[in-house]
Structures are given as C-alpha cells and as structure tokens.
Amino acid sequence: MTDEPARWTKATVYPDMWADPADDPRNNDGPGPDGELATLESVLRDYRLTLRMKCEGLDPEQLARRSVPPSTMSLLGLLRHIAEDERDWRNWISDGEPLPKLYGRRDGDFDGAVADQAVVDAAYADMEREQAATDAALAAHTDLGERLGKEGIAVRELLVHRIEEYARHCGHADLLRECVDGRVGQ
Predict the structure, then answer these.
(1) Where is this region: Disordered (predicted)?
(2) Considering the entire predicted model, what is its pTM?
(3) Nearest in space to 18 (alpha carbons), one of 174, 172, 175
(4) What is the dihedral angle through the alpha carbons of 81, 84, 86, 91, rounded to the nearest 10 degrees?
C-alpha cells in the first residue's frame, strides 16, 4: 500500500492529454486568430482555462493540499496568487496609488489557502474579478507599443509577462494535480 496516487487521464484519444480534443475548451476549430494582439489574448485565455481545468473536480482539502513540502504551494494557493498577480499588473499600468494586496501580506495568497469551501469560492471569485478588471484596464490600449503607468511598461510586455506567469504556474499545477490524485496530461 502506498500514498502515491496512480497516474491516470480522462483522455481516450491521446493518452498524454488532459481531455479528449472534443471535450477540451481550449481547442479551436479552424485557423488561429489574426494579428499579434488577438494571438496574445488567445494564448492567455487558454492558459487561464488550463489552470482552471487542473483544479476542476477537487474538493477543498485537495485544492489546499501542499504536495511538495516544505513548499506552501497548492492549487488553491495558485488561484489566489493569480488573483493577486492580476491586481499587481493593474498597479503596473496605473498612474494612481497602488491597490492594496488582496490577501494582506507577502505570501498571504499561499499561507491563507486553507481547506475551506468559503476560501475556495472566494479564490475563484477573486481571480475572476481581478482578471476581468485587468482585461478591462487594458482593453482601451490596443497599441501594443503604448507605454503605460509610472514605469512606462509596454502593453505587449505586460501581455507577454502575463502569459509567462500563467504558463509557469500551469506547470506547477501539472505537478500539484498529479500529486493530489494522479491525473496527468497537457
């Protein structure tokens, strides 16, 4: 007997995939988007969906499980961290006073990721709200070379950084999910 979960996938078409192509909301029928902005937004959307997919079907204890001690990282912590990141990115492009941290202090996003349904519900709500707010703040800036905020960050640079952050955390989510229940796939 072992505590290590058996590896598995829901996919039946390709055994290395998370879901079958017909069930994957990231799959796109037809050609990809036209233009740099549309391409960047599409990649960001797919990484956002990937993170959500890696968290689907888990209870609060599983979402809060810290699978690689002594790290405080968990899937729930990643959801909260992404919400915090989205808020921080708005601070980067603002000329005003910075918005306060969502979870109070440094590492509050991970430290406060406890196995409680109210915390899980709040994490999803925070993430969705902060994503929408950052998207709305950037919607008026379609020139990817436009520089925003006190530091003069280019819209393109911010979009690429957002993609990079989601991609890195989706890699973390792959490993965390596999440790929780053995589910694997892209």
Answers:
(1) 1-37
(2) 0.93
(3) 174
(4) -150
For helices 75-93 and 155-181, give the axis angle rounded to 10 degrees. 170
Over residues 82-100, the pLDDT tens digits come to 999 999 999 999 999 999 9
Max CA-CA distance within the chain?
Answer: 58
Instruction: Check: CB of residue 171 under 8 Å from CB of residue 68.
Output: no
Residue 127 near residue 83 (C-beta atoms within 8 A): yes
**Amino acid in the structure at residue 38:** A
Domain 8-19+60-186 CATH assignment equals 1.20.120: yes
Mean pLDDT lowest for which of 19-23, 45-49, 171-175? 19-23
Give the N- to C-terminal CA distance of the chain in Å, as an integer.
Answer: 28
